[in-house]
Structure formats: C-alpha cells, structure tokens
Amino acid sequence: xxxxxxxxxxxxxxxxxxxxxxxxxxxxxxxxxxxxxxxxxxxxxxxxxxxxxxxxxxxxxxxxxxxxxxxxxxxxxxxxxxxxxxxxxxxxxxxxxxxxxxxxxxxxxxxx
Amino acid sequence: xxxxxxxxxxxxxxxxxxxxxxxxxxxxxxxxxxxxxxxxxxxxxxxxxxxxxxxxxxxxxxxxxxxxxxxxxxxxxxxxxxxxxxxxxxxxxxxxxxxxxxxxxxxxxxxxxxxx
Lengths: 112, 116
Hints:
The complex is a heterodimer.
Chain A: E1 4-7, E2 10-14, E3 19-25, E4 32-38, E5 45-51, E6 56-59, E7 62-67, E8 72-77, E9 86-92, E10 101-102, E11 106-111
Parallel strand pairs in A: 2-11
Antiparallel strand pairs in A: 1-3, 3-8, 4-5, 4-9, 6-7, 7-8, 9-10, 9-11
Chain B: E1 5-7, E2 10-13, E3 19-24, E4 31-37, E5 44-50, E6 53-56, E7 65-68, E8 75-79, E9 88-95, E10 97-98, E11 101-102, E12 106-107, E13 111-115
Parallel strand pairs in B: 2-13
Antiparallel strand pairs in B: 1-3, 3-8, 4-5, 4-9, 5-6, 7-8, 9-12, 9-13, 10-11
C-alpha cells in the first residue's frame, strides 16, 4: 500500500519568513495530493491540493509543488504569520474521494 | 458553509465497555469515511462507505469495531469492547462529486475517546 513520509516533524520560523514542508510517497499510482492544517483540538482543514497533471499550484501565500518522477511534493508558506502556527499534514491518494494516506505531520511554530 | 457533524465531541469510558460515535456528512455527499488519529500522528482510514455500502474496511479491527450507514446518510461507528489502545481521536469525513469529478474530503470536528 501507499506510504507517505513527511519532514520535518517540527519547524520553527520567524514571522515573515518562509516555511517549507516536504513529503515523499511510494505508490506511483497516486494522483491526488492534498494538504491539511489542523489547529489544536480542531478538525483538519484543507488548505490546498494538487493533482498529478499539474506541477505547481498557488493560493495567496501558499503554494504546492509536485515532482511525480521523484515522487515528492512540497508545501511552501511565504510571509508567515502567527496564525499559521498549527500542525500540517500532507496526504496522497489515487484520486480525490479515494482513501487518503497521511504523512506524520509537521508542527509549525511562527514566532512573532 | 455546510460542515460534517459528529457527536459526542468527547467520550470517556472504561475498558471492556461499549462506545458509539455518530457522524452526519455534508448534505448530498455519497462517500463517508471514518479515520482514527492517534495523538501526534496522521489520521488512518478505518472504513469508507459509498452510499450505504462498505468499499474499504481493510484496516478496521472487525473483532471489536463495527460501522454502519443504513440509509446512506449518517453513520455510526461502534467499539465493543473498548481497549486502552483505542484512545484516540475518531474523525469522520465526507466527499461528493462535481459532475464526474470526485471532490476532496471534508472532516468533522472528531470525537476524542479516552479509555481508562
């Protein structure tokens, strides 16, 4: 089955700096890669997703890149703000609506 | 904005007792998922329904866990008997379709279970 590795497990950045989280996956059949943000005690919330026919996608301060050949994808957050502090999860599946396999999560702390 | 609903939000029980969790997906979403999230880890799928049918329960410990979605809308996840290792957050998610394109999964607030 699919296996998703996520790094780093914790990330501390200064407000205004960029944050980058990297994930690798094992199943070349995976075609859909969402990112979820989970604040303490709250539900995971989708922040951005990318499908395999696209190499990069941006939404304001958030961007995701995908390298299907190398089987890795990354989340980039620019101009970080204290409210970006949370745990971020990457995931992979064959298609949106299919079973998601999650990475272990990255705890991001943005220091004012 | 429509959201997935879950209840209870918190549940404390003693080992060997039975517990049940309820989920109401976003209206119109045919696919419903139950995930278990152990503290400090990512969610892991327990069971996936398409309407009232189970499409994936390969990771569901069937000796003690059961799930149903009788009318293809809301769903119940049951654990009997509960064990200490079942302490976790139980997340429900749902997804729909836009035309032929499946949509991503939206999560409920979860039920945090503590087994003593």
